[in-house]
């Protein structure tokens, strides 16, 4: 069993270390042919424009799109979320190529610049129900994107409060993020979603020692593979790993 981690730029080493903590080998991926033997793929956080240019240089986009279409699990964190989105706004001049497949609109750097990075407790009932542990995760948001819109097949896993001074470049943020049943409610922005074999988070679970997100992702292998059986989790030795650990980043 090997899980690939796109290793063009960004926090791929941190994801490989997290996979090791849950008993799974992480494989660095830089060439299209390296995707062929993998059961799942993680697209890490980093500088999305730079990652896109490197992926284009190595002719990775066709192979990455094909991998998504196979139904094998793919998880994008931060820049990886942008890669998986069908539509991204707020990009640099000239834009960037996307892999697509995730029916959502993402705002690049929704939460601001590097100096506006932050950490926040993020409630994720769906993941906690499967992995146990505390009711929330410490989300590390570094120049993070925000998800503005999702399609009907997309499951929202987590939301956080939107910045009070957040502008509305699309004319849709207020409409989408405000609960229509509660006028004047606090605005929320979506920061984690799942759609079929695709998982995406705007924050960086790989930068904490809480391994529940990685365990949750690995269990998607048995949920999304047509020939999967109940033995998959045993093969991954997930049941022998600690359900959670104390986070690296603390407020």
From TrEMBL:
Annotated Gene3D superfamilies: 3.40.50.880
The protein's name: glutaminase
List of catalytic residues: 78, 204, 206
Family label: Belongs to the glutaminase PdxT/SNO family.
Domain of life: Eukaryota
EC number: 3.5.1.2
Reactions this protein catalyses: L-glutamine + H2O = L-glutamate + NH4(+)
Parts forming coiled coils: none
GO molecular function, one term: glutaminase activity
Stretch list, region Disordered: 228-251
Compositional bias of kind Low complexity: 228-240
Stored SUPFAM superfamilies: Class I glutamine amidotransferase-like
Pfam families associated with the record: SNO (PF01174)
């Amino acid at each position: 069993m090997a899980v690939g981690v796109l290793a063009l730029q960004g926090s791929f080493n941190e994801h490989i270390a997290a996979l090791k903590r849950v008993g799974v080998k992480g494989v660095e991926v830089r060439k299209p042919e390296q995707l062929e033997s993998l059961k799942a793929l993680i697209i890490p956080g980093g500088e999305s424009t730079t990652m896109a240019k490197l992926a284009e240089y190595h002719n990775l986009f066709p192979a990455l799109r094909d991998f998504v279409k196979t139904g094998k699990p793919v998880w994008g964190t931060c820049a990886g979320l942008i890669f998986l989105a069908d539509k991204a706004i707020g990009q640099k001049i000239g834009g960037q190529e996307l892999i697509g497949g995730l029916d959502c609109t993402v705002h690049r750097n929704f939460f601001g610049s590097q100096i506006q990075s932050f950490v926040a407790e993020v409630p994720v009932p769906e993941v906690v129900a499967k992995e146990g542990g505390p009711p929330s995760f410490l989300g590390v948001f570094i120049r993070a994107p925000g998800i503005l819109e999702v399609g009907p097949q997309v499951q929202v896993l987590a939301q956080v409060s939107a910045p009070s001074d957040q502008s509305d470049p699309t004319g849709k943020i207020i409409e989408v993020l405000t609960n229509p049943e509660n006028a004047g409610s606090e605005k929320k922005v979506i920061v984690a979603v799942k759609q079929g074999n695709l998982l995406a988070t705007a924050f960086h679970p790989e930068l904490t020692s809480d391994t529940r997100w990685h365990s949750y992702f690995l269990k998607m292998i048995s949920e999304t593979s047509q020939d999967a059986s109940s033995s998959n989790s045993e093969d991954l030795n997930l049941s022998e790993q600690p359900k959670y650990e104390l986070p690296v980043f603390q407020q």
